Amino acid sequence: MNSLNIYYTYILIEKELIVSLKQGEASAFKVLIENYQDRVYYSVLNILHNAAEAEDTAQETFIQVYESISGFKEESSLATWIYRIAIRKALEKIRKHKNRQRLHSIVPWWMPSEEKSVDAAYLNPGINNENKEKATLVFKAISELPHNQRVAFTLIRVQGMKHEEVSEIMQLSIKAVESLLSRAKENLKNKLKHYYNS
Amino acid sequence: MKNMSNEQFEHEMNIISNLKEVSAPNFFYTRLKARIEKENLSNEIAYPLNPILVICALTLFLFMNSLLLKNDSNIVNTNSSQEMEAFAASYDQIISN
Fold this sequence. Notes:
The structure holds 2 protein chains of 2 kinds.
Chain A: H1 3-22, H2 26-48, H3 51-68, H4 78-106, H5 132-143, H6 147-158, H7 163-170, H8 174-197
Helix pairs in contact in A: 1-2, 2-3, 2-4, 3-4, 4-7, 5-8, 6-8, 7-8
Chain B: H1 6-13, H2 28-46, H3 51-90
């Protein structure tokens, strides 16, 4: 089967899957999760830097997909739509976490400190032992980036997505994504120079 | 403090690039299904406790109560004036309003 055939087969399967999902078929939902769970989990893990939070967010993503599939207009691919939901959910988690931290610093007796920290010394499980220390520093620096820069940089540099895919997921132009990536690089260089010069 | 060169930066970034994708935890689908069922159940339980429903029910209850009270007081008033007239009539008196 040539690549064009594979592509059209994939499109047909996706179309059928969307129809079945809109009809509320439980088996279609299971297929959807089996196809996307690893990608969604890995994406949110790379943004949230915490395995438990990532699983929770991935679950929330699929619940949202389940609840709003009837409203999916198919203007983008199913994968892009799911990624968009996942990234939005992950960013909501980060915002909530930051708000809680802020509130905790103002009224510590009222808002208890969270046991699990989202960014506490995250290490991607795919990193080999000899690079662990450096990778921890790099991920810490990434976690300090502004949200949009963090998402763009993670999707492109850590997950190896194309600029076009990221622009669709983030609903930004390719130029805007490139600009985010370039600013993220500059910020990371500034943050990392402290570690590498010491 | 000197800045990192592009080459140095790219070298450091290679550590975190093209990593092996991490799979979702085991039994992800089972846990998700359980969560959806739990949320559906809690939504069903929470439905009668919906604040809008509770407020509407309370308003209706108070409105019905006030209507009943108003009707009761009219009945009492009518009854008491009839009794007064009967009492006055028994002494050959007339009550004028």
